[in-house]
């Protein structure tokens, strides 16, 4: 399994922007689909966005479309989530995720997770 470490979370106001980063260890990073999930207190973990191994395909949850952008830099073994126009509903612990599956079928493909980084958006 790859080792994933998230960073960049914090406390911001509604309407602000924030960029989360995920650093991955291992030599197979460039072969993995990567994704971002979030989990608010008392709620199930929710899919946010995913990106294919070569960055050619991206998938967004409806809540993220138009506001969030997922990207990756395979040369640096990093992935980012640029979050704009943040809302209080975006408050959650955000997790970096990875899957070794060659063909992505959906959020349930992800099984490897980072430790999470807290994002809090005040109203």
Mean pLDDT: 95
User: Care to count the β-strands?
Assistant: 11
Order of helices and strands: EEEEEEEEEEE
Decide which structural class fits the backbone: mainly beta
The low-confidence parts are none
Shape: globular
Structural overview:
By secondary structure, this protein is mostly beta strands. 0% of the residues lie in helices and 50% in strands. It is built from no helices and 11 strands. The chain has strands at residues 3-7, 10-13, 18-25, 33-39, 46-51, 58-60, 68-73, 78-83, 92-99, 112-113, 117-122. The strands form 2 sheets. Strands 2, 4, 5, 6, 9, 10 and 11 form a 7-stranded mixed beta sheet that branches. Strands 1-3-8-7 form a 4-stranded antiparallel beta sheet, with no helix packed on it. It is globular, with a radius of gyration of 13 Å. 33% of the residues are buried. The model has no long low-confidence stretch (mean pLDDT 95).
Q: What's the arrangement of secondary structure elements?
A:
Elements: E1 3-7, E2 10-13, E3 18-25, E4 33-39, E5 46-51, E6 58-60, E7 68-73, E8 78-83, E9 92-99, E10 112-113, E11 117-122
Parallel strand pairs: 2-11
Antiparallel strand pairs: 1-3, 3-8, 4-5, 4-9, 5-6, 7-8, 9-10, 9-11
Task: Provide a brief overview of the structure.
With 123 residues, the chain is mostly beta strands. Helix content is 0%, strand content 50%.
Offer a few descriptive terms.
123 residues, four-stranded antiparallel β-sheet, mainly beta, seven-stranded mixed β-sheet, globular
